[in-house]
Every structure is written in C-alpha cells, then in structure tokens.
Amino acid sequence: MKCSIEQCGIIILAAGESKRLGNPKQLLSFDGNTLLSRVAKTACESMTYPVIAVLGAHAEKIRPTLNIPGLNVVNNNDWQEGMASSVRAGLTSMMELFPQVDGIIILVCDQPFLSHDLIKALIEAQRDAGLPAAAASYSGKLGTPALFHKSLFSALMLLSGDTGARKMLEQMRENVVEVDFEMGDVDIDTQADYERLLNKDKGAE
Is the pTM of this model over 0.85? Predict the structure, then answer.
C-alpha cells in the first residue's frame, strides 16, 4: 500500500549537552547565525509546517536566541538519556499540538549545509516512491534529515538511548527512499570539527 502524506511537520533535535565540544554547539556562530537558528530558519522558511525545536541541556541559554516566526519550542526533560528521548518528546508534542500531521521530518541542529531544496527533495521523493520513509544518504549511510510516514510513529516512540532513528532506517532500508546529501557528513561534535567548518566556509568565499 502506498504511504501518502497530506501534512508534514518538522522536528529539530537540539537538546544535547555538547560534552565533547565543551560549550553548546547550538549557539556556535556560522554564516551570521547560530547553528540552531540557521537550521530553524531554514525549516520555517521551507513552507513545511508545523516546526518544533526540542531543547534540553542549556535550554535557558538557547531559548532566547530562537525568536523565529513559526517555530514552536518544547523542552525535553529527559535529554540526558540521549537523542531518542528528544525524538519521543518532539513527536509527542507534535501529535498533541498538531494532530492532523501525518508525516514528520527529523532534523538535527548541527548540519549547517541543510537547505530548503533538500527538505523539498525528501518530501517529493517519499511522495513519488510511496514508501514509509525517505532519508538523506551520505558516506554510504542513511541519516538526517529523514522523513517518516505516520505508520512509523509508534516505532519512533519506542526508540531509546542515544541511537536516534539511524539504526531504524538501516534496519528498514528496503522501505526507505534515499536522497543524496553530499554535505550531510559535516556535523559539529568537537572544536576541530567547528574549525574545519569555518575554514571550509572561508574557502568557499
């Protein structure tokens, strides 16, 4: 049976502690914005509605930087469990606030090369294939951003620990349409990652 999505929402996972970095990656500056506000603005301007950002660690510092039209901000009080707790918190809020949503795209805050076009490509790829999921493909793996039809919501709610949805995508790979995201493996976990990003950006000027 073909999986069709009438209204797709977006959940941005931004609750992590950034332990390896030593300060909140959400607030790192890149191209005139913080990493998180850059992703949030891209999501809100993509005309894919509604958009929820899930905060946790450092929420009191981050929340004031997110005065972005169309963005809903929720707190994950269980953020220390890992990424899966933010997926659950975001999806729970989405279903409570916007019960008409029958598909979601999961984004993370530290993929600085996310674009409107990629979000649109995920939606179109899923619609054309009729599969229950679409995911970005980079470095031979599936990952975020990833789109899930409502038939997978219950499986997302069963995720635990720090795995996020990647393991689930790999396990159901034959039911996932893949969308190339060449810069998808650029993410920021350490100071060295951040410095590489800044140097890459300077090289592009």
Answer: yes
